[in-house]
Every structure is written in C-alpha cells, then in structure tokens.
Amino acid sequence: MRLLAIETSCDETSAAVIHDAAVESLVVSSQIKIHAEYGGVVPELATREHLANLQPVVRQALSEAGITADSLDAIAATRGPGLPPALMIGWKAAQSMAYALAKPLVGVHHIQAHLYSPWFTENPLRAEWELFEPNVSLVVSGGHTLLVKAETPLQHSVLGSTQDDAAGECFDKTAKLLGLAYPGGPEIDRLAKDGDPNAFEFARPMLNQSNDDFSFSGLKTSVRYFLDKNPNIATDNSLLPDLCASIQAAIVEVLQKKTLRAAKRERVSCITLSGGVACNRSLRQRFQGACEHAGIQLRLALAVLCTDNAAMIGLLAEKQLELGMEPAGLADDIRPSWAITGG
Ligand code: KG4
Ligand code: ZN
C-alpha cells in the first residue's frame, strides 16, 4: 500500500508519501512568519498560501519518494476539524487526484492523527502499531486539550476536554499579554528555561476537581490582573523569564497531574502525549519524571510530529484502510467541526 497524504487544516501546508507504515517523504511548508505579524492565524491569508504552496509541496513529496502519482494506491487528506477554507484547499486537491487516478479517497480526523502520533517512531520514520497498548492520551494543541482513553488503534473514548481555552491558546494569549511574539508557546518555553517557576504563584485551574476536564481562560485572566496590579513587574524585562517559568509551571502541573490521575484510575500502564504543546520542554520533562516514578510507560510524539504534518495523516489513513473503514466518497465534503469519536 502506497498513499499520498495532504494536510492543510491551519497554517502548515504539508504532503507525505507513506508506504507500508513507513514515511517515504514528508514536506512541510510553514506559514508562521506570515501570520506572526498579525498575532494569530488569518484564515484568508492561510487559504491563499495553501493555494500557492500545495502543488509544489505535493510535487516535492512525490519526487523525494522517487515516485509518480500513478503508483499511488490511495489519496488521503485532513477532512477536519480546522479552518474551513484552509481545509477545503487540501481536501479538494485530494478529491481531484483520487478522481483522476480512480483511487480511494481517505478522510482523516486531524485530532485523531495527533492522538496516535506517539506511536510513530524515527530512523526510519514509521508506525509502530505492533507495540500499541491501551493508554491514556493527552492531546494538547492550539485548539484542543483532550484526555482520551485509547484501547486499540482507532478505538478510543474521550475522558475530558477543556471547557474554554485550549492549553496552546493559554500559552499564546498569556505570551501576548507579556508582549511576546506569536506563536507564544515556543517563546514562553524558551524564556522559561532561565526562570524560576516558583517566583510567582498562579492558579492551577480545576486541579483539585476529580473530573478529567480542564479550564485555562481563568489563568489567562489572572495573569492579566497580576500584570495590571504590578506594572513595575510587567515592565521589568529582567523578570520575564521568572514570569514565563511561573505561568508555564501552572499549565504544566495541571496537565501532568490530571493525566496521571486518569491513567491510574483507568488502570492503564501507558500514557501518550501529542499536539503542538507537547513540544514544550518542561511538559516533556515533567511527564518523564512522573511516569518513571509511577512505573508507567510514556510515549511522547516526536518533535517533528507534534506540530501539524501530513505524515501523521497518512499513517493513520493507511490504518483506517487496513481496518476496513469506508473511504470517503468523491462527493463527500470537509468537516470543519468534526467531533472526535472512536470505534
Ligand atoms: O498542533 P498545533 O501545531 O496546531 C493545532 O492543531 O492547533 O499546535 C499549535 C500550538 C500553538 O498554540 C503553539 O503556541 C503551541 O502549540 N506550541 C507550544 C510549543 N510549541 C508549540 N506551546 C508550548 N511550548 C512549546 N514549545
Ligand atoms: Zn494540529
């Protein structure tokens, strides 16, 4: 089985060629610099960029894999959730290719692709489905914060999610309050490295509630009030690392403790971590320490697969076909607000 996968749900244009659970090529064209000027993703600009970049990105992916389109067995693309006009570019291109080549079209759920990405390993980049074991999975991206129990590949149930802002959104919005560049998550991560996480005390929202839900909008508001009340701190650049480390510690502690608690309650011996925020150094370290202490196996998504990419879309698409899931029909359309469901 050899397939081409396309991802255009937000601000990365990406294509990958997958062959028997291995990634033969992966090309990602990021638009971060274009959107940075506006402090967030501008859907109209993202769409125009996808339109301009998709063809060269797909051509490059095919050429790096050393194949032509006629040797493909299927075409896969992100069907949702995501920005509707951005999704539309990748989906329509995939539909056209599937039609022209008379091959199946596979629609992939973007968050499910993040969810299973910790099972994709490197050297060479491939899926390790044979090692899969039941797990509790934390998916933390710019738009989602989800705790999921996964029993087998593509059989999962959502345990909890954020009631308001996603963890990535909280990083980005608090970074904005601190005057940092977009996207704020990596900036906070970088500055926090030299800061004291105990310098300032911020709330740990919903940490002591026994459910698996999260809430991050209150933390953002408490940072705003804190900066308003302490203008001397807000304007003192030498305190920026301490502020970043303290904010990061609040987000990371809630994510780590609630995930460990859920894993123990669900009696699983494996935790996985994925999504853009899973790049965060402190989050990775804290999960590593806590899982080691609890005797739980931890599978972290590779850094290259934490942010949006077509390799995770293609590897999951191949699994969907292998499990006998129906491909999409050529008349089927995008699903911008596709709820995550499983098995
Ligand atoms: O998964 P992703 O690339 O896109 C979505 O599907 O949302 O996640 C992007 C999010 C952004 O909020 C970004 O600030 C955050 O991931 N992020 C980080 C780090 N790298 C990316 N947050 C904290 N620390 C990082 N190192
Ligand atoms: Zn994503």
What does this entry look like structurally?
It is a single chain. This protein is an alpha/beta fold. It contains 12 helices and 12 strands. The protein has helices at residues 32-36, 43-65, 84-101, 110-116, 167-177, 184-192, 217-229, 231-234, 240-265, 281-294, 303-306, 310-322, and strands at residues 2-7, 12-19, 22-30, 74-80, 105-109, 120-121, 126-127, 135-140, 145-152, 155-161, 270-274, 297-300. The protein has a 5-stranded mixed sheet with strand order 3-2-1-4-5, sandwiched between helices. The chain has a 5-stranded mixed sheet with strand order 10-9-8-11-12, with helices on both faces. The chain has a two-stranded antiparallel sheet with strand order 6-7. Helix 5 (167-177) packs across helix 6 (184-192) and helix 9 runs parallel beside helix 10 (281-294). The radius of gyration is 20 Å and the shape is globular. The mean pLDDT is 96. Residues 10, 141-143, 168, 171-172, 183-186, 189, 275-277, 279-280, 307-308 line the site of 5'-O-[(R)-(carboxyoxy)(hydroxy)phosphoryl]adenosine.
Query: Total number of β-strand segments?
Result: 12
Task: Label the structural class.
Answer: alpha/beta
Relative helix content: 40-55%
**What's the rounded overall pLDDT mean?**
96
Quote the distance from N terminus to C terminus: 23 Å
Query: What small molecules accompany the polymer chains?
Result: 5'-O-[(R)-(carboxyoxy)(hydroxy)phosphoryl]adenosine, zinc ion
Describe the largest sheet. 5 strands, mixed
Amount of beta strand: 15-25%
